[in-house]
Amino acid sequence: MAVYKRGGTCWYEFSFAGKRVRESATTTRKTIALEAERQRKLQLEKTLAGIPVEKRENRIRSVSDVVKDYIDGYGANHRGASAARVRWALGNVTDRIGNVLLPDLTENRIRAYMKTRLQEGVSGRTVNVELGELSRAIGKKWSFLWPRLKKCEERTVSARPCRTNRNGACWRQPTETARRTCGPWSGSQLTGLRAGELSRLTWGRVDLASRVVTVGDSKTEAGRGRQVPMNEDLYQVLCAHAEWFTGRFGETKPEYFVFPFGSPLPNNPTRLSVELKTAWESIRKAASVNCRQHDLRHTVCTKMAEAGVPESTMLAIMGHMSRAMLERYSHIRMAAKREAVEALRLSPVSHGVPTKVPTIGVSSKIQ
């Protein structure tokens, strides 16, 4: 065991478990170098004994350093869409506090970041996502890093289903002409599939004979491989789309994407479309509808809930992981709530509380 100077800097050298350890103490003082040597040897002894220890370099790394390492390894076991979301969230973090060292990442510093982001007009949900990814990049929970700092308040509902106005017309629903123009987009309103599930759908997963759509890759484990039956409306839409597809590309091979790539017209069925959002906006504006594509998924969930579909069936169709997420998507309309409480009337004309859960018949449709 020895401490010596080289180039004006103190180094230490010792043998440990049959290996020679020679490292710079990054100091010019021998007393500090001796303490650094002692701490390094203690760290190696803990490692040999199986006791977890924090890496020394983590003490002096910046936010940009940990973010870079985290992003580099994230894509190895996550979907491309998830990796893109993480890059976006942490990109906002590094743009603003990337040069901050980890020891300086105090609650006051994070609180200032939250205030700045909110003043920039982003939602509380966005701020929480960004800082949540930062805590995961560091490798510790939010509650450990900033125990006294509360997360930003978030809206409980991020989207709405189609609603009916006072005249009985659905002001967020396209006209019949616009609905025909939407073509395959009706699949979202008739199945509840996510946009990503629709864009990755191949003809091999569309069984027109059995009238079943099988979801491939999905956002959740519960969503992968789930089967959604077609009602008559969706069956007719997909049959018409298959006829157009065959005329355009010759056949509907199993590996071909239902929504092929190409602009201004589809020209490559082996690649999925990357312009579904643009297409939806064009359809929405043409139909004079104030509706996001994802709102159609909320509409599906709401209509099934109002029709009395069992929760287990809804979870299977929607591809949700839990009842809590199902409740987030199910927006029971006031009319349905009023009908429910009317069943509690105590007057003689009341028929009492229903004893059977309503079910959907074979011919029922989600419109």
Structure description:
The chain is built from 15 helices and eight strands. A hairpin with a 6-residue loop joins strand 7 and strand 8. By secondary structure, the chain is mainly alpha-helical. Among the domains are: 52 residues, no CATH class; 83 residues, DNA polymerase, domain 1, CATH 1.10.150; 116 residues, Intergrase catalytic core (hpI Integrase, Chain A, Orthogonal Bundle), CATH 1.10.443. 45% of the residues lie in helices and 9% in strands. The strands form three sheets. The chain has a three-stranded antiparallel beta sheet with strand order 1-2-3, with helices on one face. Strands 4-5-6 form a three-stranded antiparallel beta sheet, with no helix packed on it. The C terminus is likely disordered. It is elongated and about 85 Å long.
Describe this protein with a few key phrases:
single chain, 367 residues, mainly alpha, DNA polymerase, domain 1, hpI Integrase, Chain A, 3-stranded antiparallel beta sheet, 15 helices, 45% helix, 9% strand, elongated, disordered C terminus
Summarize the structure.
This protein is mainly alpha-helical and 367 residues long.
Number of helices: 15
H/E element sequence = EEEHHHHHHHHHEEEHEEHHHHH
Q: What's the CATH class of one domain, please? A: Mainly Alpha
Q: Radius of gyration in whole Å, from Cα?
A: 29 Å
Low-confidence stretches: 164-184, 360-367
CATH topology tier name of one domain = hpI Integrase, Chain A
Give the CA-CA distance, first to last residue: 79 Å
